[in-house]
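Allow me, if you will, to draw on your knowledge of protein folds for a short while. I have a record of one protein: its chain in single-letter code and its fold written as discrete structure tokens. Kindly check, if you would, that the fold set down in the tokens agrees with what the sequence suggests. Thank you for your consideration; the sequence and its tokens are set out here:
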Amino acid sequence: MSIKTICYLSFGYPTIEKSIEMAGRYIEGGCDAIEVSIPPKDPYRDSAFLQELYRVALAQTDDYSKYLEGIGRMTEQYPSTEFFFVLYHEVIMAIGAEKLGEFCEKHHIVNVISGDLHDPEAIAALRKHGVKLARSVNYKMNEDDIQRCINTDGFTYMQAFPSEGQYVKPGFEELETCIRYLRERKVSEPIYCGAGIKSPADAARVKAAGGQGFFVGSSIIKLYDTPEKLVELIREYKKASQN
């Protein structure tokens, strides 16, 4: 049994048109879903690598209506592919939760990941349009994060592997332990794992630990200039998740 291969697309990097082209390459490689970000102006939660992608995109345009227009064209070009958003609170509020909800409903985008969206009115506006709000948890295993995962109607984004020097809650050093605990706590929606996945072997580790999907990002983004290698790498990730 395979698990879901989810490819990350930093929309607007290096241009909007290039992003749409890369989505096609992801699909050619066999990904099951594409996670789409719109660049925030204050990416305080992300790595230096992702911050640079956002900077390049925003240098092209900081008009979020142009990002939505491009994403809309992308979803229409690839209607059989599942797309979902990963968005900062800042971006959601800049677009407007109602407008974003309408966009998601029109383009069949069901899931939105936001690690810092806690505004009840914005959440209600999104849910009015059928959006499910995914929640995230990491190796700190913070109780507030766990409660949000229990209560949400979207999937749980579990950090795949801790970064060097990161705090890890004692007793939760292994991904399998974290996933098992979340299930014991009645997290009932799918658990997808991201961050720290650098090779197909890591995808196999996620599958062995009980994850139902995995996110791959930087390792394929770095191959944008060699699309044949990018497609082949995605195929290798997918194969590893099936064995």
